Structures are given as structure tokens and as C-alpha cells.
Amino acid sequence: MATPWKQRESMPMLVTQAIFGINVAVFIGMLLSGASPMQPASADLLAWGANAGPYTLTGDWWRLVTSCFVHGGIIHLAFNMWCLWSLGEMAERLYGRVTFAFVYLLCGIGGSLASVWWHNPPTVSVGASGAIFGIAGAVIASLKLGEFSGSAMTQGTMQSLIVFVGYNVVFGAISGRSDNACHFGGLIAGLIMGALIAKVAPEPKLAPRVGVLVLVAAILAGGLFGLERSRAFPYYMMRASEQVENGKVDAAIELYNSAIKLRPDSASQIHGALARLYSEKQDFASAERELQKTNLTDERTLYWLGVFRLKQHHMDDSQQTFMQLLALNPQSGLAHMGLGMAADEQGNFKLALQEYGKAAQANPQLAFVYIKQGNSLMQLKQYDEAITSFRKEIEISGDDESTERALAEAYKAKGMSAEADAALQQAEKIKSGQE
């Protein structure tokens, strides 16, 4: 290798400057989006690609890289950029642009992986320091094991780098705000790559250098895979619940399915959650398929299985399911309500009323039975009884937009315009409150 410190003009710091610019640009973008310049909130950091186990291990693997370009405040950014500029010049001249770029990124990934592994419960981690520690480690190993190991200049450089690493580790431990797991992860990755390059690929030849980088990348990929297999299941469940709360049904379904792949033995409760999500999408065939993978001796599970079959107009299968539920529990209000719904679907409103009556008798507090009873009474033009049923539903289940609208229809059919208008106004009020 030609002596790197004699080639300042032939090897400008293009990669170092590019990395520097990306870090600054990301920070400016964060400020323009409303993040605090001194201490951005965790939500802002996550939105810009911060590293955190629940996200990184559940599909957002790109956070291992993006977190290396996000910083937790202007002081954090300034210190890391000073370190990057100081080390980048030396490392880029030592390895060449392409090798330096890959070493930097792989060290950053190594630091991010170490952070995810170490922090349990998880934490939000950002910053270029893992990659910077990795560059320091790579240069230390290359100078120690390479042909410059005996020179006086190398010894001075080595001492400076070791002091740099030691100081930052101690400072991070004392301050409690630095992610030393990320620092050590990047440092170890850098030491390994620096040693391999010094011994296997000291000359900038394509094949040996690519071999070293691919080997390290494969090790890091194996680490990510292992962490996902051992840690990701509760994170998938947590993120799926978050997506459900945010109304993102498709994203929640994808996360639940990933959780099942990791823990097939814990899939029973997940299939039930998937059935509910598919029913929200009106995909009742998929909802039925998910329920069939659960415990079919559970009363509520059998009821919903019958409902999903009814929604697909599989009348015989639906009635058979409700009868199976009735055989399991002769006092099941859900079974009679399901049979009433099946009768409604066939236009047999008198039979439906009989079944709803049995359901209410078996469980007077059963939700939705009275509104279904009222709808059947409306079909038979028994408006007074329908109004009584709708009022009973409000008493049992609380005020609801659909019940108020049904009540308005009943009042309108009776010619009670003022009451109908009041019920519609209440329905709109409830709707506005929900929105």
C-alpha cells in the first residue's frame, strides 16, 4: 500500500463530505418538520428513521441504516460530525472511497444491531457514533496489523484513536445518555473488518475486498435474523395492536401473520384477532377461515363462525353452526340470536321474533338482540313494539347512532315527526362525537 498520508491531493474526502452532508440535511429536515433543535421527541426521531427494537425487528430493518443519519439534537450532531471529519479523512485515504463507504455503513449497522440486542426493554437509538467508532476500530486494526505497524507515526495515531474510543466510552457511561452498546457494536465490527482487510485484502483489488465486505454483511444479516427469531414476537403483537387502534387494518393483518410464522404454537388468539380484522374488511370468507383455526368449542367463537357464514349466504352451514352452539349450551342467548338472524335473512320475521325472544329470555342483558328484534318488528309494521325494543337496546347497550336512526324510522312510520327529528339529531350528535 502506498503511504496514505502522502496522498492528500489524490484522495479528496468525497465520501466523508457526502456522509457529513446527509447528516446535516436530515437534521435540517427534522427542524423544518417541527422537531426540537436541542432534544427531539422520540416520536420525531422514529418518524425520521430511529432504531428501536419493536420497529427494527418487525420489518423496518432499514432503521439499522437510517438511524445512523439521525441525531438527538444539535450538540449530538455537532460532536459526531467533528469526530467524523477527523477520522473520515484518514480512513478514506487509507481504504479508498468505495471500501470506506461500505465499512462505514456496515459498522453503523453493527452498532445498531448491538443496540437492539442490548436494550431490553427497548430504547430509541440514533446517531452516527456507532459507525464512527467502527471507523476508529477499523483504522486501529489496519494500522496495527498492516505494514505501517512499526512506524512512529502509526504509534501516535494508534494512541490518539485509543484515547478517543476510551474517552467516549467513559463519557457515555457517566452521562447515561450515550448508547454504549451501539458504540461497542460498531467498534467490534470495525476491528473485524480492519483486521480482515489488513490480512486478506491490503491491496484495493475487487475480489478480496468484496469477499471481506460480503462476509461481514452476512454475519450482520445472521445477527438480525437471530434477533428477530428470539425477540420479535411480542413486538409484532404490540405493533399490530397499534395499527388496529390507528385503523390500519391491512398493516395489522400483515403484522399478525408475521407473528404466527414466528410462534405457530401461540397462534390461536391471533387467528381470532385476524377474523375480526377480516370481518371489518367485509372479507367474511377469510374471517371464517381464521376462526376455523381456533377453539371451536368456545361459545362466542361458534357464534361468530355462524355469523360469518350467514354473511356469505351459506344458510345451511350457518344454521348448523348455531344449532351446534345450542347443543353445546341449551341456554345460549347467542345461539338463539344467531338463529333469529338466519330467519331474518330468509324473510321469516315471525320466526326471527321467536328466536330473539328466546335470546332475550336466556340473557336479558345481551347486546344487539333488542335492535335486531326491533328491526324484525318494523318489517311486520308493529311500530309501537319496535319503538319499545329500540329503547330497550339503548338502555342495555348505551346510546348508539344506528339505534337512534332505527328509532327515528319507527317514529316516522308512526307519524311522530317531532320525535323522529329528535332521534335523527341525536344520531348526528353521536356521529360527530365519534368523528
Relevant terms:
mainly alpha, 435 residues, elongated, Rhomboid-like fold
How would you characterize this protein structure?
- The protein is mainly α.
- The chain starts with 13 loop residues before the first helix and ends with a helix.
- The protein has a domain of 227 residues: Rhomboid-like (Rhomboid-like fold, Up-down Bundle), CATH 1.20.1540.
- The N terminus is likely disordered.
- It contains 21 helices and no strands.
Q: What is the helix tally?
A: 21
Spans with pLDDT under 50 lasting ≥5 residues? 1-9
What share of the residues does DSSP label as strand, in percent? under 5%
State the major sheet. none
C-alpha end-to-end distance: 68 Å
Radius of gyration: 33 Å
**Helix/strand-derived class?**
mainly alpha
Q: Could you name the CATH homologous superfamily of the domain at 4-230? A: Rhomboid-like
In CATH, what is the class of the domain at 4-230? Answer: Mainly Alpha
Listing every helix as H and every strand as E from the N terminus to the C terminus, the arrangement reads HHHHHHHHHHHHHHHHHHHHH
Tell me how many strands there are.
Answer: 0
Identify the CATH architecture of the domain at 4-230.
Up-down Bundle
Shape: elongated
The CATH topology of the domain at 4-230 comes to Rhomboid-like fold
Mean pLDDT: 89
Chart the SSEs and their pairings.
Layout lengths: L13 H19 L9 H6 L5 H4 L6 H4 L7 H22 L1 H22 L10 H17 L6 H24 L4 H21 L5 H40 L3 H14 L4 H14 L3 H8 L7 H13 L3 H14 L4 H13 L3 H14 L6 H11 L3 H15 L3 H13 L3 H18 L1
